[in-house]
Structures are given as structure tokens and as C-alpha cells.
Design a protein that fits this description.
Distance between the termini: 74 Å
Radius of gyration: 28 Å
Structural class: alpha+beta
Number of strands: 13
Strand content: 5-15%
Shape: globular
Number of helices: 18
Largest sheet: 5 strands, mixed
Length: about 425
């Protein structure tokens, strides 16, 4: 019987297979001291602490199975190209070194391509905003066909993510929160920046309006008449039609325009704001603050308009500082019911009351979850408001005091 020389085949290790995927010619894994590895802070993708915790437990038990990718620096240290979660998990697990594959002679473009591609392949709970800018940047480095093949995502879906990068920050944040569907957000991305700003301001003033795929297309076609889209004949949603009827009811016997409201600015100046929209077209959710009432310590029910304007500003700022309600309004455009849920949750987590200073004034806040009202004491004087009343006061404050830059700053700070 003839003899055949059969050459033994080496079974590829996890490390060599991983190295083949990223295109390295050196499959050797080396141990590098943690302090010699430098992370790049300029990254689109957020760090997830839960992922680090899970990886650390696995590494402590089984060791580091997948190596990180690094590139040598001139000072004897190494730049981390891929593996931020793994490296941090290694440190958390108490290991002194991290397993790495060293990639030499990489250009900045190649480094960034590896960073983006490796993250997009894993796609571990990344936000739509992260994916949007990652795919947009990668599309400037690689051909779309290559990106689609490497990330196993269709070119159509990739283009959708890229369109999200054209949204202003508040809308992009709402996509991340799930308030605006991605398909609807893509439609909004074709609006100009000014049209998006006008739409966002409209949503702040009309908390009953929600963006969906149908009305997003209508807004794209008719961005200058938002009242018609949400409350007029062009609105297909039965819910919007019902809300429109409710908006008409308070004004059927009184067609006069809204009164001029005055509110002092943070600098102490008094400004006038005139709502020029027809009362017939206004949402019932945006009421004239002079109609709102509060209760004092003696139990007397008084109009909000009787509160000194500086005190009203202090009340608004105290509630915002304690509950971050401005962020939640910007992120989801909560109506009064949803805001009530947030206030209940916030105070259950923190406390039933708080005390502090706002603009030099002593402010005490107490939340009555059973009666759904705040008791706010400013320098010893009580102001008791139902959550619906306080929500309207806060919305007016936000409309008059917050610029788009401030809105975006709040979103980034709290995010």
C-alpha cells in the first residue's frame, strides 16, 4: 500500500484568526504593561461601565481571550487602536498587563479605519448618534461597498444612519432616547438648520405633539406651516385631530389674542413676549400663565401672576436644578403626565424634600407624591403648585430663557 505524506494542519488560534481579520502580518500576541498603553480620548463611541464589569468578571476567571490592537509611539508607549473596554476590564480585574497585537507603520487614516470598523462590527448597544457619525466618518475613508461588507449592514441602512448626522443636537438626542423613530428622523434631516430649530421650538410649546413617520414626511413637505401638519387637514393622525378639537374649545367664546406676558431675564431686565399665533390654532397645553393658580401657606388660592417675577425665576431654577426637568423636556418633550412620573421617580430616588440657595435666596422644596404638588418655600414664603401648573410655568421659563446653544449645552452636560 502506497504511503502518503500528509502534512499536519495547524488549527488557527483565536488570536491568529482575530489578527487575520484586521489584516496584520504578525500574529504574535504580546503582553504590555497597562501604564504603557495610551487611549485616544477623541472617540465617538461611549464607554459602557456595564460592559467593563461583565468583561472584568470573565477576565478574572478565564483570562483575556481577545487581544487589543496597539501601535507603537515614539516614547516607548503604545497607542490603543482597538479594545478600550477590554483594556479597562483587564485593569479592573487586577491584571498588570494587557494582551495586544502590535500594528506597525499605520497611517492615521488606517488607525481610524480600524477603530471605526472594529466598533461597528461589534455594534454593542451603541446609540444612533454614535453610529451616525461613525458611519459618516468611515464613508470618508472607505468605499460604501467595503463598509457594507465589513459591517454586514446594507448600504440603505448605512445611508440612513449617515442622514442622522444632519440633525441638530436636540433632535439627535431624541432619536437616542427613542422618542423619534429613526425613519422619521431621516425625513427631518432634510430640513434646514433653521427649519429644525423652528420645529423644535414648536414642540417645546406644544407638548401634546409627537413626531412619527407620517407627520415627519408632512413636515418635510410643508415645514413652514406646522400648525397645519399637527392640527389641520393635512394631519392624518386621529390623535392629532382630537387634540386640535380640544385646542379650539377654550377659545370658542373668546377669540381675542393672548395677553402680553412679562418675565425678567437672568440679568434682571424685564422682557415682553407676545404670542402672535391665532388662539384658535394654539394647543390647549400652552395656556396663558395668568390663568394658572397657586396656593399659599394660609390655603388661599391666588393667580401665578401675583408672584413677584424674580421669585418666579428662582422657583423655576430651583426645580430645574433639583430635578433636571429641562433635560427631560428637551430629550422627550414630556407632557404633564410623563413629567409627573419623572418627578415621582426623581424624588423617590433622592428625598422628599431639599434645601439650598438659588441666587442668594433660601429655597426649600417638598414634593407631595400623593397630591401631585410641589411646596416651594422662598425665604420663608410658601408657594404650593399642582404639577400641571408648575409644568406650564417651567415651559414658559424655558421658552423665554433658553437659547438653542443653552439647550444643546444642557443635553451634553446631562447626557
Amino acid at each position: 500500500m502506497p504511503k502518503f505524506n500528509i502534512k499536519a494542519q495547524a488549527i488557527p488560534t483565536v488570536a491568529s484568526a482575530y489578527a487575520d481579520v484586521i489584516g496584520t502580518t504578525d500574529n504574535q500576541i504580546v503582553e504590555i504593561r497597562n501604564e504603557l498603553i495610551v487611549e485616544d480620548s477623541n472617540q465617538r463611541f461611549q464607554i459602557h461601565d456595564e460592559t467593563i464589569e461583565q468583561l472584568a468578571e470573565c477576565i478574572a476567571k478565564d483570562g483575556q481571550l481577545s487581544p487589543c490592537i496597539v501601535a507603537p509611539l515614539s516614547d516607548g508607549k503604545y497607542e490603543l487602536i482597538d479594545g478600550r473596554h477590554r483594556r479597562r476590564a483587564v485593569i479592573k480585574a487586577g491584571l498588570p498587563t494587557t494582551k495586544c497585537i502590535i500594528k506597525t507603520n499605520l497611517t492615521d487614516k488606517q488607525k481610524q479605519t480600524i477603530r471605526l470598523t472594529s466598533n461597528l462590527i461589534r455594534n454593542n448597544d451603541y446609540l444612533p448618534s454614535e453610529l451616525a457619525f461613525a458611519y459618516k466618518e468611515l464613508s470618508e475613508l472607505e468605499k460604501m461597498k467595503t463598509i457594507s461588507e465589513e459591517t454586514n449592514l446594507s448600504k440603505k441602512k448605512i445611508y440612513r444612519y449617515i442622514r442622522l448626522s444632519y440633525l441638530i443636537e436636540p433632535f439627535l438626542n431624541r432619536v437616542d432616547s427613542g422618542t423619534i423613530p429613526i425613519i422619521a428622523a431621516v425625513e427631518l434631516s432634510y430640513l434646514t438648520e433653521q427649519q429644525q430649530k423652528s420645529l423644535f421650538q414648536f414642540l417645546l410649546n406644544h407638548s401634546d405633539c409627537r413626531i412619527n413617520t407620517v407627520n415627519a414626511r408632512q413636515i418635510k413637505e410643508n415645514p413652514d406651516d406646522l400648525e397645519a401638519v399637527f392640527y389641520g387637514k393635512t394631519a392624518d393622525s386621529e390623535l392629532n385631530k382630537e387634540l386640535a378639537n380640544k385646542a379650539l374649545k377654550p377659545y370658542r367664546q373668546n377669540q381675542e389674542p393672548e395677553k402680553v406676558d412679562k418675565l425678567s431675564t437672568p440679568e434682571g431686565k424685564t422682557v415682553e413676549t407676545q404670542d402672535t399665533r391665532s388662539p384658535v390654532n394654539r394647543s390647549a397645553a400652552v395656556r396663558n400663565p395668568s390663568e394658572l393658580m397657586y396656593q399659599n401657606a394660609e390655603g388661599n388660592v391666588l393667580p401665578i401672576a401675583d408672584i413677584e417675577l424674580k421669585t418666579l425665576l428662582i422657583i423655576c431654577e430651583a426645580v430645574i436644578e433639583k430635578t433636571h426637568i429641562d433635560y427631560y423636556i428637551f430629550r422627550r418633550a414630556y407632557d404633564s403626565r410623563e413629567i409627573l412620573i419623572h418627578w415621582n421617580d426623581e424624588y423617590i430616588k433622592v428625598s422628599d424634600s431639599s434645601c439650598g440657595k438659588v441666587k442668594g435666596k433660601v429655597v426649600v422644596m417638598e414634593w407631595n407624591a400623593a397630591k401631585h404638588m410641589f411646596r416651594i418655600v422662598v425665604n420663608g414664603k410658601d408657594y404650593i403648585m399642582l404639577h400641571k401648573t408648575l409644568e406650564q410655568v417651567l415651559r414658559r421659563y424655558i421658552r423665554e430663557q433658553y437659547t438653542l446653544d443653552r439647550i444643546q449645552s444642557v443635553i451634553k452636560e446631562k447626557h
